[in-house]
Amino acid sequence: MRRFLLIAIPYAWLLALFLVPFVIVLKISLSDTALAIPPYTPTLDFAGGWAGLKSFFADLDLENFVWLTQDDLYWKAYLSSLTIALISTVLTLMVGYPIAYGMARAPEEWRATLMMLIILPFWTSFLIRVYSWIGILSQEGFLNQFLLWTGLISEPLIILNTKIAVYIGIVYTYLPFMILPIYAALDRLDESLIEAAEDLGCSRLSAFWLVTVPLSKNGIVAGCFLVFIPALGEFVIPSLLGGSGTLMIGKVLWEEFFSNRDWPVASAVAIVLLLILVVPIMLFQRNQQKQAEAEQ
Amino acid sequence: MHATTFAPWEDPEAKPLIRFQNVTKRFGTFTAIDNLSLDIYEREFFALLGPSGCGKTTMMRMLGGFENPTEGRIELSGQDISGVPPNKRAVNMMFQSYALFPHLSVWDNIAFGLRRDRMPKIDLENRVAEMLKLTRLEKFAKRKPHQISGGQRQRVALARSLAKAPKLLLLDEPLGALDKKLRQDTQFELMDIQEKTGTTFVIVTHDQEEAMTVASRVAVMDEGRLMQVATPDRIYETPDSVYVADFIGDVNIIEGTATPDGQDTYRIDWAEGQEPIRATSAHPFATGDRCYLAIRPEKVTISADRPEAAINAVKGKVLDIAYLGNISTYHVELPSGTVIKAQTANTRRISRRSFTWEDSVWLSWTVTGGVLLAE
Amino acid sequence: MRRLSWFNTVSLTLGFAFLYIPMVILIIYSFNESKLVTVWAGFSTKWYGELLQDEAFLSAAWVTLKVAVMSSTIATVLGTMAAYVMVRSGRFLGRTLFSGMIYAPLVMPEVITGLSLLLLFIGIGLDRGVFTIVLAHTTFAMCYVSVVVSSRLVTFDKSLEEAALDLGCTPAEAFRLVTLPIIAPAVISGWLLAFTLSLDDLVIASFTSGPSATTLPIKIFSAVRLGVSPEINALSTVMIGIVAIGVITASLVTKTQKVRQQRDEQEAARAQ
């Protein structure tokens, strides 16, 4: 009995507040837009009995999904989300790896502090961290002031409200997600392996490429997924830093819902986004599982 | 000591404290315990001995109430205990990892079980004090488990599981985490405590020396079955299978065919062109039966010439000498290629050793020196 | 001993500069006299004063705090239960679905979680407000709690629980007297994580809140869409300060505990 309750309570909670809402999204994505409250038909009519149920299913169709393929706004938004997420993931890796590497080679007594310094931004408000870049990247912002002062440029650069600002924002906010798994992998790495490679004739650089990098592969893969997956559905960063010119699917969904009040299309957008996400999520799971098995 | 004064298993009137009746335990398709029956008597120090995966831990967990038998009955004082949860059994267990509660002091760890019984405060304090005294832990009562040494932790675990004065105490590899020297001291301490408290102990171990030292009886297990249950000396001297002979101590096994040759005596033909061996056995063999002679190295005498009176003697060449300080083991290769080990006590200084590598030597043993086994 | 190369030193310096300069600028300019956020016009704490008088911000902060305390507490209870079920319950009907529902919210884009919950609340005619945000936050935070707690439970020596049962505990007593005290640090960090996630959340709160309940992130978001403001800088500084104190204290506490534990163990080993 006790065991039953222990399982049933969290189970029921997740069913009611995770699975059911998700089924509703799926159902609305197959419905038609209507000028009503709620703004879609058909609505499920239990009072109508079997016939009501039947007509309900008969009214569902894939119209909204067809619409997504016809209006080029959507597929452009998906495509641009994918490219932005991909480019930012690569950039985050390039910025994060040297930091993780430096941390792993730092003296023992520093490491706890360095670790804390990496985690600290993670606990501070995401919104504030994104916001802090507005003042830096704007036309009269600190970066332009600095560059003008050094004489590197004569005209202020336009960075805010471009894709570059979005890249910077993603790299900045997701950097800890990249650093932590890579650091964990590098920290486990046995220093004598490097020494063995050097003993066998590797230069320091080739020992790094031939030993360190392959052995931190799991950390790299985990870090990349941890950045790529949330970046794909990102809303805050493109809407604060990307301006109106940056299309990202999270933003489109938000606008579709709040500005256009087109719930069926918003739902269809969400379903397609999830379908796209399934692939990297499955790959990530596989990588984690393989790693867990290798550790046993 | 035990064997002469204390042997309830030889008394047909004695009622066992624990009785396994045709117990089988399966995990999915894997059979951990295979139709096993066993009686254990009150005040016994009983050892379950076997390699890992032989089912000894499963036996213990069934006694503790953490597993239930798939088939058969387990009785404690005549009552079926299958299905009784661990907290309702008069059985306590000392875990291999000790399982000391890290957030509680030594004192609170020992008092933990007594508190569950709602023992009055004054009795509880007396009982804990008694246990601390028994295990010589008075000075460490206020410490947390991580603040004491491995040997002390072992004693806390023992005190905690004995505090409730269980009918039966289960010990899962109780000395496994200690280093060799400490382990030997602790073995005697365990025996001492067992005698003082009069509790029945069932110990699980893979260390045969440990089992032989502490136990009144030893059960040798393999693949979920009991291979032999007997006192340590009988297990060593008269194993009833090659498996047991080989598992306990060092042994030479000579394979051959038996021919009856007088009262309980057999002639064993074991190699082409070699003199047959003679051995006695209570177990009957028919002519041509396959048999195995198990003979302990210390029962084999090594000499330069063939001893006059020896019935069994073979000639060979010293292949290797393992010098262990108090004893030396000679590995002697026979012309057939078989290697026989012979052990001698080093009563003289090593520089005056009689044999060395490549020496031609004679090995001999008596008719009763070995045990003739069928399997 | 490993030694930092020139390259390591440079990358660490640049990396941490990149992580911290934006926040440092934010903090410095929150003390700027001028309304123009990029021009320094002298030291002043007047924006903090204005913040304290801004009713809208204060009430949003109060709503956020209420939501965070409630949702993280419920999420901790549910998440711990879920973790226990995942690690200890063995097989049961629908276990795969259960573990799927625990892990999916972790990778689900917030916009989708928010949208689906909003559609549910509208569907069942629930008025949106503090209550609905608490429901929403609890749902995704419990998954994080369950991941944190189950990673601790996996390494938990199961024989400790068995020992408690053996000494006469019922399963519930064993959990209360042995398991819970030992996994408490993980449960507490789960609660803290849930609390921070709730404080921080903009997207899900935007979908599930009604006009009656505006949380701080929603308020900040609508303000910063219009650009940088010194008042937001002041607010950010306060929030960063609280987090920094919390994180630094926590790491100091764990460090001293670790040092003490190590010392105790060494002494115990020597005393043997």
From TrEMBL, chain A:
Keywords attached to this entry: Cell membrane, Membrane, Transmembrane, Transmembrane helix, Transport
Gene3D superfamilies found in the cross-reference section: MetI-like (1.10.3720.10)
Membrane topology: Multi-pass membrane protein
Subcellular location: Cell membrane
InterPro entries: MetI-like, MetI-like_sf
One Pfam entry name: BPD_transp_1
All residue ranges annotated as the ABC transmembrane type-1 domain in the record: 78-284
Transmembrane segments: 12-30, 77-100, 112-136, 167-186, 266-284
Keyword NAD belongs to the record: no
Entry's family note: Belongs to the binding-protein-dependent transport system permease family. CysTW subfamily.
Annotated protein name in UniProt: ABC transporter permease subunit
Annotated organism of origin: Pseudodonghicola flavimaris
Automatic annotation (TrEMBL), chain B:
SMART domains, per the entry: AAA (SM00382)
Example of a GO MF term: ATP binding
InterPro entries the record matches: AAA+_ATPase (IPR003593), ABC_SmlMolc_Importer (IPR050093), ABC_transporter-like_ATP-bd (IPR003439), ABC_transporter-like_CS (IPR017871), Mo/tungstate-bd_C_term_dom (IPR008995), P-loop_NTPase (IPR027417), PotA-like (IPR005893), Transp-assoc_OB_typ2 (IPR013611)
Start and end residues of each ABC transporter domain: 18-248
Catalysed reactions, as listed in the record: ATP + H2O + polyamine-[polyamine-binding protein]Side 1 = ADP + phosphate + polyamineSide 2 + [polyamine-binding protein]Side 1
Enzyme Commission number(s) from the entry: 7.6.2.11
Coiled coil spans: none
UniProt keywords, alphabetically: ATP-binding, Cell inner membrane, Cell membrane, Membrane, Nucleotide-binding, Translocase, Transport
Function as written in the Swiss-Prot or TrEMBL entry: Part of the ABC transporter complex PotABCD involved in spermidine/putrescine import. Responsible for energy coupling to the transport system.
Family: Belongs to the ABC transporter superfamily. Spermidine/putrescine importer (TC 3.A.1.11.1) family.
Xref: PANTHER family: PUTRESCINE TRANSPORT ATP-BINDING PROTEIN POTG, SPERMIDINE/PUTRESCINE IMPORT ATP-BINDING PROTEIN POTA
Protein name per Swiss-Prot or TrEMBL: Spermidine/putrescine import ATP-binding protein PotA
TrEMBL record, chain C:
Domain ABC transmembrane type-1: 61-253
Membrane topology: Multi-pass membrane protein
Gene3D superfamilies documented for this protein: MetI-like
Predominant subcellular localization, coarse grouping: membrane
Keywords linked to the UniProt accession: Cell membrane, Membrane, Transmembrane, Transmembrane helix, Transport
Subcellular location(s) per record: Cell membrane
Transmembrane segment boundaries: 12-31, 60-85, 97-124, 130-154, 174-194, 232-253
Superkingdom of origin: Bacteria
Pfam name, any one: BPD_transp_1
InterPro entries hit by this protein: Bact_Polyamine_Transport (IPR051789), MetI-like (IPR000515), MetI-like_sf (IPR035906)
Family designation: Belongs to the binding-protein-dependent transport system permease family. CysTW subfamily.
Name of protein: ABC transporter permease subunit
Naturally occurring in which organism (per UniProt): Pseudodonghicola flavimaris
